[in-house]
## 1
Amino acid sequence: VQLQASGGGSVQAGGSLRLSCVASGRTYTNFVMAWFRQTPEKERQFVAAISQSGATSYYGDAVKGRFTISRDNAKSTVYLQMDSLKPEDTAVYYCRGSYQRDYWGQGTLVTVSS
């Protein structure tokens, strides 16, 4: 499967962004979808994940209560709504699809200024 992430950009602290990740090439509904992020100083960090149906979601402690993951299986797309952004949320965000193996998108940069 190929994953194409988009929606990154620059925003001030307290603002919002919505990331999208479109999948193509395989049956999207088989995949558990997730978002990770990475900065040059840190290892790749788990942000959020969502089950195949969208009924269950999981969040990293750093983003609980501020970020929301969702998916539209008809559009083969997973979203990450990011609210109340903080400068420490600055990172490259990657989407990942998992089914039999992991597939990674190319990443989209989010920059939050104070």
## 2
Amino acid sequence: QAQVVESGGGSVQAGGSLKLSCVASGDVASGGCMGWFKQTTGKEREVVAVDHTDGGITFLADSARGRFSTRVSRDGDKNTLTLQMNSLQVEDTAMYFCAADKSAECYNLFVGRRPFSIWGQGIQVKVSS
């Protein structure tokens, strides 16, 4: 059964760094796309980054560009998408969710034309001033 499991996150002061990891297993672990989204209370979930599970294709939101980076790695039948977050700002405080999908239409998943099918439970990131 396809699933994604997030880890990392926590609390950090502004200007600091955090790393989030997402492990995908099942039929979403290869040939498709994985992504990170963030959501704060009362706001809609917004995309942060989307990568192809085979690597080489990355889409980053404007708010993440220049500060965040992603890396895709494979271990057996599992795929990991890492989100390295640097120069964190108070505005980055949110619940972060990992998502995966069998579709290779990573751009359409990134711009919201196509929904991700598998979602994680979410992980909290808190940035204090």
## 3
Amino acid sequence: QVQPVESGGGLVQPGGSLRLSCAASGNLFSSYTMVWYRQFPGKQRGLVASISSDGRTVYVDSVKGRFTISRDNAAKSVYLLMNNLEPEDTGVYYCKGPNLVWGQGTQVTVSS
């Protein structure tokens, strides 16, 4: 079982931006659909965005137009660019693939 490494979180003011990174592994990485999840305090993890092996993307309604998921198969990495952040985006963000266990996540805090 392989654990991804998420990074790029931090404290940002409302309206600001962050770019999250997820370093994964696996010889078949390019064939996997990769997903970003987030967990709000006291809540279960929920899907934020996904990207298929051929680049198709899906977003939860609350982040459409603000977040962009992308991947670099050569680097076995997936990214989440988050613009126009809102306090409601505060949470721990995780990436996940079919060959990956849950990582430690990266904390995003949006506050003035």
## 4
Amino acid sequence: QVQLVESGGGLVQPGGSLRLSCAASGFILNDYAVGWFRQAPGKGREGVSCISTTAGSTNYANSVKGRFTISRDNVKNTVYLEMNSLKPEDTAVYYCAKSRYSNCPAYALSSSRYDYWGQGTQVTVSS
């Protein structure tokens, strides 16, 4: 069955970096876009970034643009989220999700476009 497993979260100081990984199985990763979302305590789920099948198209939330980079390795069936210059407001549980589609247009950070989700990994930015 379809599985998405996130890893790489942890505690980091403000200004630090982390790289999250999303290992996919049970479907052909090449055929689908993948997104990263996050949910902070007491807040709704927020779309962070997405990447199309061939990595030809990516999109980012304004809050992370210029600091986060999404990438994918279809051979390793893994999608990554490189997070730099982390801020306390980046603290959240981060989830990866499989899109129903292959592309990643500007409106692709809506959770309704995704049908399978990982269990999440905690990222805490604090001194």
